[in-house]
């Protein structure tokens, strides 16, 4: 069950996007998220879709992974789509069934918003699929560095993030083990009536919490005995390098932005 | 209860790009009432086999017969409760499964899930807590206040209290001190002898397999490569080395002893006691002749 989870999974590769500096990728994705909101008509959405498809192609990530990443947000997408279909009014009525009226505008908005979700999820999935968690944290820490001036504990935040990411697989393994142990004792979260399943969560969560706290304590002790005292004066093993391809990528994004604004104003 | 694994194959994350093959054509026959050891090097597939024994994992190929129940690859099984009650598993580091407020409740958890009344479950708890060598007073304590060794015993009592017909042990003594190790292993052995429980021991300790098992299966790279009596399997050290296994220390010792005194004992000894007896026989014979 756990092994099918795709979220936050890094797939090593050597594509243009894999080789980009994590800082560039973060800026890229963040700016793209903002750009998505510029789109408001058919040409702009088409442009977004074409751009996303191009990025998917360049990343050489198999579509399987992206579709899988979509699963968790599928319900949200369908929900907003239906919400727009039934409640947005405007334009001609295209379907009339009893008290239900579907307007042209509703359908259009529904499709637009779903597309928005789709491109956002694809883009962010590409970020996490092509960048190792460690580089994402490194990139984030460097990007947020200026905030140190206003006393934001940037290094600590980055450390927390990398520890959290590091322990996701460990906790998953642990969950799997405890789940099996309790299943062998006759309590099963994966099947049976809902009421039974909810009852079976407690025997799973308590041991998981206990071991997570133990692990955290051990980690803290291990860090302390090795003299850890924050990011002060620390050098890095992995140096981030901004290359020509990063500048190119950001320029391409600027072009997309210009194109979107142009399409929005002229159509 | 007999357990028969026939041509079992298993892949983790089947039909995804992360698919990983763990087992190929595994055949194991576990006879009712026997003490069966499954040994193999790390990554040989022992733990995957173990999870098939009470249908926590279902084979992707082949079929398993657990008592009356037959589990065939690709077929949905609804009611596995009975199988899980009859085959109890003591996992590696079983203390991680403790969760209740008191030891008593935790031991009762398994039996009550299988429909035993609270009263009976508590009776069982009292019985099994003594059997694993702990005091009855511990029943009222929180399992999280106990020492590691005590927690292990409580967890074992929790599995035994389900009164399974088959007990599967996955490295039950990992992380214990030598004394605790021996006590726990002796406990399982006496259970096996007294109640005629079928025991399945998954281990990489050749010593434990040699000392306790009636029958032994060797796993190597996801396949079951040999099955037979320990004395027979351990007689071929070369073959074992191919599977990255060593013969028990006591056999190594016997070999070097035989080489030194230039006399063959004629019998492969699986335990220290056995060897001492054989050596004693030789010494007595020599003395009588002199």
Largest sheet, strands/sense/barrel of chain B: 6 strands, mixed
- The total strand number of chain B stands at 10
Q: Could you state the order of secondary-structure elements of chain B as H and E?
A: EEEHEEHEHHHEHEHEEHHHH
Level-1 CATH class name of the largest domain in chain B: Alpha Beta
Count structural domains of chain A.
2
Structure annotation, total helices of chain A:
10
Shape of chain B: globular
Q: What does the average pLDDT of chain A come to?
A: 87
Summed up, the helix count of chain B is 11
Radius of gyration of chain B: 21 Å
CATH architecture designation of the largest domain in chain B: 3-Layer(aba) Sandwich
* Percent helix of chain B: 40-55%
* Main sheet summary of chain A: 2 strands, antiparallel
Query: Quaternary arrangement of the chains shown?
Result: heterodimer
Subunit structure (chain A): Forms a stable energy-coupling factor (ECF) transporter complex composed of 2 membrane-embedded substrate-binding proteins (S component), 2 ATP-binding proteins (A component) and 2 transmembrane proteins (T component).
Membrane topology (chain A): Multi-pass membrane protein
Family (chain A): Belongs to the energy-coupling factor EcfT family.
GO molecular function, one term (chain A): transmembrane transporter activity
Topology of this protein?
The complex is a heterodimer of chains A (267) and B (290).
Chain A: H1 16-19, H2 22-36, H3 42-59, H4 63-87, E1 93-97, E2 100-103, H5 104-130, H6 133-144, H7 154-184, H8 194-199, H9 202-225, H10 244-266
Antiparallel strand pairs in A: 1-2
Helix pairs in contact in A: 2-5, 2-6, 2-10, 3-5, 3-10, 4-5, 6-7, 7-9
Chain B: E1 3-12, E2 20-30, E3 35-40, H1 46-52, E4 61-66, E5 69-72, H2 81-86, E6 87-90, H3 103-113, H4 118-131, H5 148-160, E7 166-170, H6 178-195, E8 198-203, H7 206-212, E9 215-220, E10 223-228, H8 230-233, H9 237-242, H10 249-261, H11 272-289
Parallel strand pairs in B: 3-8, 3-9, 6-7, 7-8
Antiparallel strand pairs in B: 1-2, 1-4, 4-5, 9-10
